[in-house]
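job 3f2a | input accepted
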Amino acid sequence: MVVWIPLADEMPGSFSVFPPGDTHLGNPLFREKPLRRFIDYVLTKKHAVVGWGGDLIETIAPGDKRYKIKAVDPTKTRADLQWRAFLALADPLKDRTEWVLQGNHEDKIENIVDVTNEIALGLDAVNGNVMAKIDFGCFRLFDWHGWGRCNSRAGDPRQRRTNEEIFVKRQMRDQAGDCDVMVMHHIHKMYVHKPTSQLVMTHDANVPGGGLRGRYTQPTRIPLPDERYYIPEEHRWYASSGSFLGAQDETGTFSPYTEKFGLPPVDLGCVEIIVKNDKLQGVKRRVFE
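job 3f2a | predicted structure (289 res):
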């Protein structure tokens, strides 16, 4: 179920939207300082909206087959301790938080407790389930926790990045054809795939003889029946919104799965969606170390 969240009537002409996620509080690799810097940055914005993207706590308890003594914060082994600690950290953004998504880590213990609902209630926000569609009036956002692995093995760094950006787009392109911006989480990487402008030849009635002239395409909405519309996939923004979970253990006390699989380090942070004067300006990467 896609949760619909209408915010158009509440928004000023200029604002920012932040979809942070994958904090994994309770994991020793959770990076609290970058998260606090992110929170401080959001608080500098006069108008900002926050939607948390899932996997906010680790939820791996001793009875879980994934549990490893060194891979869980010994002071936060229980899910309730983790979500209360998360609520304490996220409290400065409570007035700006509009939705909370469910990640696969929260889903693992839903037979015991609905962690996402507990966090949403604590932040006075909407429980967005796994995916939500948010209407800001001047644009629509599709926010999804996400799924899959995104690890290109291409030889060239630029090609690896391109391959992984395309993976992000491919994961979402068919999920919400009326959204200008599509964001996913889960992969712990921060990518932004911009709309693609294409040069096309069109008939120009102003040219004697009806000649052809090249024109560049612009983001557009194609009308559909019942006052709906469709945005061509090349005219949308796609992003993966990073994380606040480090890839390597800096203390030298244990080997996380990221080291075992030889995964690269990741940027810590969150993308920012920027609107000025009721017009979507774009999506920017925001890294916090």
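job 3f2a | The longest helix spans residues 157-172.
job 3f2a | closed
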